[in-house]
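I am still getting used to backbone structure tokens and would like to learn alongside you. Please make up or recall a protein chain and show it to me in full. Would you write everything just below, so we can both look at the same thing?
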Amino acid sequence: MEKLKRVVCEIAYSHDFSNLSLLHRSLLPLLHLASSCYNLSLTTRNHLYFLGIFRKQRLPIPVISVGNLTWGGNGKTPMVEFLSHWFSNSGISPLILSRGYAGGDEVKMLERHLMGTSAKVGIGANRAMTAAWFLETYGYTDSHGDVIFEKLLYANKVSADFTSEKIDAAILDDGMQHVSLERDLDIVMVNGLMPWGNTKLIPLGPLREPLFALARADIVVIHHADLVPEQNLIELKLGVQKMKESLPVFFSKMVPSHLFTVYNADTKLPLSAIEGRVVLCLSAIGSPYSFVKCIEKLQPMHIDQLHYSDHYLLQSKDICMMRMRLEELYHNFGCTPIVVTTEKDYDRDRDILSQLCPFEVLVLCSQLQFVSLHDKNSEKTFKEIFKQLLDTRSTRANISEHS
């Protein structure tokens, strides 16, 4: 199954099918059929909502969706964390609504990073039902966004220690395709390294929706911008704005902060712990290339790589293969290698990774940071536009309610 996933991924990011191997080309008819069926299902669902046969649900608090158009590696979870910290520091209590996909590795990471803040995390495929339980349990601020707009507006002037248990806003994690729930703002994350692949719908390509769906977005953030040439970023931005001319586009990257050992998450090691070492990069994430490029910047002596499909659960046989690879590296370089993995992999496979002892396994911690191209303070501009859009939506909601 893992090999099949890898082959499908290679097809999805190939721009010339004629260059594919015989195995890859043999799968094309089946993938074409599956992609057509997916497109039919997607179109039918959207029409049913448009005709009012399916009805969208509205929460009594503002909903901010963070989503994407392609599978994995777009920076959705780091953006959710960024918004949650911003809200909490502004005296706003956010509720993160996550489906908890594949064992909830991203949820575990969010819970650890947001510990001590006012953020709450709800898990469940039915986001509206999950939200209803939290709103009934903790209460909520019914204000159509007025309260969170005011708190964001005066965040630097008023202490944030007045935060109550009441929930002020919901953040919909991976929410772009979750059309059954109304939202007030749609933030769409784009992987700058591999934006659209072959531009086909899954499983033939990486797209969850056609590119024209970007017209539903309120803000687009192009992630991994530090790993992409500036000219490519500008062209990607222009391509996005062809779908919606007024669409604000920002750029972001992951900035490493420290490391901890897989055997003790409370340790906090400096990034220099990698410098001059022989490193085996291990990951099962949507964008392994970006992880390796990040490790390269920390100046190891040598990098070897082991990558699996997104959310892959490690097996005992994988640990055996890793041990063989580590012993080979030791033989080749004459020094003990270390394993470096991501937080998502740690939260999904911490127990099995511990079986690599006595080899050292380190976990890299990173946070999302905005990248400035021609805007001197892109994070400030992002927040200003976010507040403007939220104010506009809350004003419309108030007018609609009183009309």
